[in-house]
Amino acid sequence: MVARPVILACVTLLLHIAVVNGALAYYYPSLEYQVTRNNSHNLSQGWRVYGDRILHRELVKRSYKLFQVVTADLRYPSWGYTNATITQVLALDQVTDGTGGYANITRGGAGLHEVVLRFKSQRNHSFSFIIEIYGSTKQSCRELSFCLIVELLSSRDVIASSVYMSVYNGCVEGQPGSKNLFIIMMAGGFAGIISWGVIIPLDVIKSRIQSDDPLNPKYKGMLDCFVKSYRRDGLAVFGRGFLVNTLRAFPVNGAIFVGFEWSYGMCKNIGEGLSLQN
Q: Transmembrane ranges (predicted)?
């Protein structure tokens, strides 16, 4: 009783497989032949994105020489320098029977501004390749955005760190008596609030440049972003997020300086103990 359903299921599965294979063989009779027949030696490096365009397309073809290996080189650009950044390099072998040549990139390629390809035939055979090089001059906008963000982060962190430590030291040293937990937490909290208040405008500019479209940027630089943001949203836009950062900065930076003072004191005691032993 149990074996019969199992046998019927197996027979049904085999019939389904046979029907599917028969349908594939009927509708695609040359599929297997095409896969085994096409032995092209294609080369592909990189990938294209929206907005890329074809920079260069050329047929590189050499006839065979008796008992010899034929070679050729292709350089893009053929001379000078291009502002376009290459995103994809394709070398499409036009000989599909496996007797075609081979293409290799010897210099440059995707992500750079030039590429050099070397073509080499099999002995006593010719080769034929269609070369397609894609890229975009807008790639430089991505590099510009990256440089702007690095510059903003550097400026922001230098200013924030200077204000941060100056305010903390001023608050702590201005209090009579020794440091205690309350003074350290209050000084650290105020240092965090004031440092965030100073760099909030730079943080707003950084966020806008980061969210800008690298393929079609609206901002040419920090000053351009500042001017356009002021004209569109007014001066209040440079204070966005201050309240949220203040609520977070006070307890976080207070706890940070408590840990800092504890670690500093522990390291100082260890150093003094080692000096006494010596």
A: 181-202
CB 132 within 8 A of CB 55: no
- CA–CA distance from 246 to each of 15, 155, 217, 241, 259 (Å)? 71, 21, 31, 9, 20
What distance lies between CA 96 and its chain's CA centroid?
36
Q: What's the pLDDT band for 208 if we cut at 50, 70, 90?
A: confident
Q: Are strands 115-120 and 127-136 parallel, antiparallel or unpaired?
A: unpaired
Cβ count near 31 (within 10 Å):
11
Cα–Cα distance measured from residue 119 to residue 74, given in angstroms and rounded to the nearest whole number = 8
Full DSSP string of 22-61:
HHHHHH-TTHHHHHHH-----EEEE---TT-EEEEEEEEE
Give the SS3 label for residue 100: coil
What is the structure's pLDDT at 61? 94
| Domain boundaries along the sequence of the chain | 39-137, 140-277
Q: How far is CA 160 from CA 151, 172, 217, in A?
A: 14, 18, 28
CATH class belonging to 140-277? mainly alpha
- Please give the Cα distance from 84 to 217 (Å, whole number): 17
Fold for the domain defined by 39-137: Immunoglobulin-like (2.60.40)
At 214 the three-state DSSP class reads: coil
Distance, in Å, from the CA atom of 41 to the CA atom of 29, rounded to the nearest integer, reads 25
Average pLDDT over residues 151-171: 76
71-90 pLDDT tens trace = 999 999 887 767 788 999 99
